[in-house]
Specification:
By secondary structure, this protein is mainly β. It has 2 helices and 11 strands; from the N terminus they run αββββββββββαβ. An 8-stranded antiparallel beta barrel has the order 1-2-3-4-5-8-9-11.
């Protein structure tokens, strides 16, 4: 039986979060909106100043138009598919809601491009994909939320950080393209995507603590 990546991520988060039970609290559930999409998560304290937090995020958006990467007059369908799972440790160094966070994002975010355009100056059918990372993307950031150990009722959450990812661009070769055409265009697309290696992460949300 094959286990899907999404189910694997969920299993990792579920396995890690019970560590918070040693603090004796019921934890915090939260929802958020940010650069990784719409997220649903759970946080629990490990001790007075530390908590562990997991988030599942996703979002899909498609649009059609002319994008500069594949020549003027291109008519392309672009699909943004955000799908990720994050698990982090939160340190509250000041005794209040300010936190410093570090962990990992199991990153399956990708962009798919299809339609009619130019590849290395040759008019053709375009079929390309950018996968934002193969595997795990380390994460570092700061933020704010009530400590799960002491919080009760509704609250707010905020995160600002950086996800260190490794984008990979691929273009499917068509019959009227040479290997050189594909290699040249792939290199240009890869160079553009390399600017996202250090991806800013921003999220805001609401929480409820038990």
């Amino acid at each position: 039986m094959t286990i899907s990546p999404k189910k694997s991520w969920l299993a990792l988060i579920v396995a890690a979060l019970p560590l918070g039970a040693v603090a004796g609290d019921m934890g915090t559930v939260f929802t958020q909106v940010g650069t990784n999409g719409v997220g649903l998560g759970y946080a629990a304290s490990v001790d007075e100043d530390w908590a562990v937090r997991g988030v599942l995020s996703g979002y899909n958006q498609a649009f059609t138009g002319d994008i500069g990467d594949f020549g003027p007059g291109s008519n392309l369908n672009v699909k943004l598919d955000l799908s990720s799972a994050q698990i982090v440790a939160d340190w509250y160094p000041m005794g209040d809601g300010f936190r410093v966070s570090g962990g990992a994002v199991f990153n399956n975010n990708k962009i798919s491009i299809s339609g009619v355009g130019q590849v290395d100056g040759v008019a053709t059918t375009v079929n390309a994909e950018v996968k934002m990372s193969d595997g795990v993307s380390p994460y570092l950031g700061v933020g704010y939320s009530s400590k799960p150990k002491y919080a009760k009722g509704f609250g707010v959450t905020f995160d600002l950080g950086v996800m260190f990812q490794n984008p990979k661009a691929t273009i499917v070769q068509q019959a009227n393209l040479t290997a050189t055409n594909v290699a040249n265009e792939t290199a240009e697309l890869q160079n553009a995507m390399n600017k996202l290696k250090n991806m800013p992460v921003f999220a805001v949300g609401i929480s409820y603590s038990f």
